[in-house]
Amino acid sequence: MNLSDITIAGARASLDAKEFSARELTDTYLYEIEKKDKDIHAYLEVWGKEARMEADAADATIARGESKPLTGIPLAIKDNILIHGRVASAASKILENYVASYDATVIQKLKKQGAVFLGRTNMDEFALGSSTENSAYGPTKNPHDLERVPGGTSGGSAAAVAARMALAALGSDTGGSIRQPAAFCGIAGLKPTYGEVSRSGLMAAASSLDQIGTLGKSVADARILFEAIRGHDDLDSTSLPDSLLTRVKPKKIGVPRKFLEKGVDADVLTAFEETLTRLRERGYEIVDIELPSLPYSLAVYYIINPAEVSTNLARYDGIRYGVRADAATIGEVYEKSRSYGFGPETRRRILVGTFVLSSGYADAYYRKARAVREVLRADFASVFNTVDAIAVPTTPTPAFKLGENTSDPLAMYAEDIFTVPINLAGVPAISVPMGGVNREGYDLPLGFQLIAPHRGEATLFAIGSDVEKA
Fold first, then answer.
1. How far apart are CA 125 and CA 109, in angstroms?
2. Exposed, middle or buried, 176 (CB in 10 Å: 0-12/13-18/19+)?
3. How confident is the model at residue 252 (pLDDT cuts 50, 70, 90)?
4. Which of 216, 227, 157 lies closest to 430, judged by CA?
5. What does the pLDDT look like over 272-294, one tens digit per residue?
6. d(Cα 470, Cα 465) in Å, to the nearest integer?
7. CA dist., res. 285 & res. 220, Å (int)
8. Cα 116 from Cα 195, distance rounded (Å)
9. Closest to 395 measured CA to CA, from 309, 213, 267
10. What is the CA radius of gyration of the chain?
11. Taking the domain 1-470, which CATH number applies?
């Protein structure tokens, strides 16, 4: 079975035609995991026994002629999405033994479809990072070059799909955590409109930014998985009302060229311009646009994100939730439990977040950042009155080497420059492969990011598919 070429749609057709069984498909992926993952470390836990049982159930469903788009499709699930009865640690020591007591809404939807869950994937602890080096259980490596990062924080999910150790995967995106690893690993990654996919059962990092999304070998795979998990959910107060995806024929793409003038690798810019040229040849109009507040987005993000992280992670204190360290006083329990349970990047963001929310500094930092966020949202809304989508590179560089940015947090944060504005604005975006560059004998993928208006996923799929064909 050629896993390099098989897509969700192709697997669906072959499963329904009885060309192979869901059990055979699942066994093939489990074999690939066993063969490759000792080097890549995309998975924190593989559910071989359970996956085979789910595959057998899917085969019975197919035999009855009752299959759905994802029946029997083997998926990888990021470690911060709850599956009842299974460990969900968010790649943190503080939750190393936590067993989920309920299913996330997206998991309920996938179970109804009869999907197969291969395992839980590695990630930056509590989805805080840009490389999947911040996992308490060791870093994931990029399948294209094992000395480089896969991107973060959904690096395990992206690496699993890129290495053909899963047909598709779920991740979460707080500031680029699906799109950046999709770009580094050479696959498609979708960050939906905020509220389009329920966050119930997703461990909170920064609640106004977090969004579950999809990773696949192609835009079509990302779309099929997205359509299975989207929809209103009463358990999520930020969930949007149900709506149909509107078919569109987008024609005009805006490019904020002033934002691309500094700090972008020359090879990334060359690949980006070549992709734009191919889109022009397919009939798209490419125009320059202005987004005046865009340069402030990284600073705004790294105030709002730590503030919300500090608040959300306060519950993990060794008393209410999380691993508990023995100590003589309750204050020492807090200190020892959180010092043991949280890694350096998580502690850094908790400290920054606590500072920007503290008395005397909230007005100077947090409330000002929220005000600029509203200006950014207005800028995006204004631009979308004149163009169908916005295009930028997904990342300013190809995948960097393991350890290259770990001692310089600002350099690590700069890798998010093209992705964090989208989460601040709450609009959807997708990363699609746009060729690659050679570094030290390895071909490294690059990502082309498309941004659409609120609930404009259909626009992303239409243009993204044309990028793949161009």
1. 26
2. buried
3. very high
4. 216
5. 999 999 999 999 999 999 999 99
6. 9
7. 24
8. 25
9. 267
10. 21
11. 3.90.1300.10
